[in-house]
Structure formats: C-alpha cells, structure tokens
Write a structure and sequence with these properties.
This protein is α+β, with helices and mostly antiparallel strands. Among the domains are: 84 residues, no CATH class; 72 residues, no CATH class; 67 residues, no CATH class. The chain is built from 17 helices and 12 strands. The strands form 5 sheets. The chain has a 3-stranded antiparallel beta sheet with strand order 1-2-3, covered by helices on one side. Strands 8-9-10 form a 3-stranded antiparallel beta sheet, with helices on one face. The longest helix is centred in the middle third of the chain and has 23 residues. The protein is elongated and about 130 Å long.
Length: 397
C-alpha cells in the first residue's frame, strides 16, 4: 500500500486512529491501529504528506522489503514496524539498536532487560527529534563527546553533558517570530546578528546534563536531565530590554486603563486613580476587560431595583439600561447627554420598585426638576402663559 500516505496519528480514548490519504483516489480515510503506533508518534516516526519527519531510523526505512534512501512514504502497514524494532528482541533491527546503545555508553554491556533497551532507545529518539537529526547520528554525537563505555556488570550508565547550539537558520526563524510577537515588527539586521551571538554564547554555557538510574529489581533505566537553556525565556528577556518594548508596554497600559475606566463609567462606578491602575494592571496580566466589567455590574446592582438587577445580571451595562431615559432627560432639561451621570437622582426615579416609567411619563416628571425652570422650553412656556393671561384680561389683542 505504498500509494497511501499517513497524515496524522491521534489517540481517541482507548483507540489510536491513523488518518491517511490514498494517492490514487485523493480520498482521506481513517482506521484504528495498535497502541505501539502511539509510541511511534511520540518518537516522531511518521510523516506529514510525503516528507519524513524525524524518522526513527534516519531517512532510510524498510517498506515492503525495499530500502528507500530518499523520501520515506510511511503506510498504515509499516508504521508499527518502526518502534517494533525495539519492542521485541526477535524483531529486525533490535540487535543493531542494542549494540549502538551499548557502544555509546547509554546501555550496560550486561543489560538483557527489554524494558532497559526500550527506555534508552526512546530517550535517543526524543533527543534526536529535539536536535533535528536521526537517532544514529545523535548516538554518534554522544559518543564523540567522550562518554565512556560501561564495562561493569551493574548496568550503571555514564552521565553526560550535551551542548545544543542552534544552526543559523533555526536561530534566525525563531528570533524573527519571537520579535514579531513581542515587538510587533521584524528584527533589524543588527538586532538579528546580536541576538544570534548572545543565544549561541548562552547555549554553549548551558549544557544539558543527563544522568541515569537503574532499578536494581527490574533493571529499568530512567534518566534525569538538568541544566540546559530555556531559549524562549532567554530571548524574551533580551527583547524586553528594547526601547520599543517600553513604548508598547506604555501604550498597552494606557489602553488597558482607558478600557477599565470606560467599563466603570458605564456602570456608574467611580474609581480612584489607585483602583483604576490596579484594574489596568490586571488587564495587562491577561485578565479580560469583560471579567472586570462583570465585577462592576455586580457592584452597581447592589443599589438598583430588581428590574435593573435582572438586566445587569444578563451582562447589560447600567448605561445601556438607562440610555432611553438619558436621551429624554437631555432633551427635556437641555443637557449634554454625556454630562448626565448615572447616579443622577432623576434617573433613579425612572425605574423604581416594580414601576417602570415610559419616556413620556419620565419627561413629564422632569418638569418638577429644579433644572427645568432654567431651560428655554420652560421660559417659552412661561412666556406663552403670560401672553395668554394678558389676552384673557384684554390687555393684548
């Protein structure tokens, strides 16, 4: 079935599902596989499309009895075979794996425990995947670094240190993506050169140390890794020293502060400068403005009638609830609607208890407000009344 190419391997509950494309029909299909395939995926021994991705045995794999030394097409039938070369002492390739591990000092000479071979081999597969190389090149690199051979019968494995320096292409791509994420732009040539050098120097100084421990009862070997460099954190710390980052942070703080103040104002909440800054910092640290606005609505609901509380609980801001009354109030009292505070007593009269005024009723009620007498409408109505009185008494024609 070399005309079928694996697209993905996923765990769905107790089942392992292989999704593959039939090259002749272009149809995508799925089938269940064995648990070993989940381990094969962990080892990186499958492909996306037609390109080998971290094949467990470099760029050469056995497919239907033929060796393909270029692009490996992994089919549903041969996928399990990758890891099976290390899960059975009778499987093809097991002897080569075991001897390679022993030669590199990663496995004791006297080790005959199948679980020890599996554990050491899987560690190699994971290390090779991290380095972007095939397992046997990875083992050869370990051997070159002077790891001694284990000639004791105790199966104790030698600790070793590994310096992982990224190649220029990988470093450039990673630095570019991180700079775009943090500074919202691509790095300059000067920045790129400087960051690459600092990264390389730091990787040289921070070797990854691996030690091994063998269980005396089962012979199972477990490894522990210490040291190494967190490249993302290292580069992030350097990029945050850029003047551009300070500007972005300042702009972000200003935007967060404005968003918090708007949310508070929309619910009639008066914030002190300290409170506003505290809420803005929470937004800068990842909390959503909607979550803070929800807190403001809960505070606002305390002093509101039940009808308003119910609306606030649905996520409606106080300003939205009273918007029709604010508009009527602005028109009747000839006020700037933006100058009307949600705490204005006149607004509170619009909705009280179980009584909700219509806008007409509200406008009539506003005529009793002390501010009404100073409006042009009030003066006009007063003049009209005076004129009518004069007419009634015959002083005007």
């Amino acid at each position: 079935m070399a005309d079928k190419v694996v697209k993905s391997v996923t765990q769905v509950g107790p089942d392992v599902i292989i999704t593959y494309t039939d090259l002749s029909t272009k149809k995508v299909s799925s089938l269940k596989a064995t648990d070993e395939i989940a381990t094969a995926k962990l080892a990186g021994s499958y492909v996306q499309g037609n390109q080998t991705k971290g094949s467990a045995f470099g760029t050469s794999a056995q497919t239907g009895g033929e060796t393909n030394n270029s692009t490996t097409i992994v089919t549903p039938e041969n996928l399990t075979a990758y890891y099976q070369q290390a899960i059975s002492s009778k499987a093809d390739g097991y002897a080569k794996i075991r001897s390679s591990l022993i030669a590199a000092g990663l496995l004791g000479k006297g080790s005959k425990s199948l679980s020890s071979v599996q554990s050491a081999w899987l560690s190699v597969l994971q290390g090779a995947s991290a380095d972007g190389t095939d397992p046997y090149t990875y083992i050869a690199n370990i051997k070159k670094q002077g790891v001694g051979l284990d000639t004791t019968a105790s199966q104790k494995q030698n600790p070793y240190s590994q310096v992982n320096i990224w190649d220029p292409t990988k470093a450039t791509d990673y630095i570019t993506q991180l700079t775009q994420s943090i500074l919202n732009r691509e790095p300059t040539e000067k920045e790129l050169t400087s960051l690459q050098k600092q990264l390389s120097d730091a990787q040289k100084k921070n070797a990854l140390n691996t030690t091994y421990k063998t269980d005396p009862k089962t012979g199972k070997v477990t490894s522990t890794q210490t040291g190494g460099l967190d490249e993302q954190q290292f580069l992030t710390d350097l990029l945050k020293k850029s003047p551009d980052y300070s500007k972005i942070k300042e702009a972000g703080t200003t935007a967060a502060l404005q968003a918090v103040q708007n949310a508070a104002k929309a619910n009639g909440i008066m914030l002190t400068p300290e409170d506003a800054a505290s809420y803005a910092e929470r937004v800068r640290n990842g909390e959503k403005v909607d979550e803070i606005a929800s807190t403001f609505r809960k505070i606002a609901a305390i002093s509101q009638p039940k009808a308003v509380q119910d609306l606030l609980n649905t996520g409606t801001d106080l300003a939205t609830i009273y918007q029709p009354y604010k508009a009527a109030m602005a028109q009747t009292l000839e006020l700037n609607p933006n100058a009307i505070d949600l705490t204005d007593p006149a607004l509170s009269n619009a909705i009280s208890g179980d009584k909700t005024m219509t806008t007409y009723e509200f406008q009539r009620a506003l005529r009793k407000d002390n501010r009404w007498q100073y409006t042009n409408n009030a003066r006009s109505e007063a003049a009209d009344v005076a004129t009518q009185v004069l007419k009634d008494f015959g002083f005007m024609g």
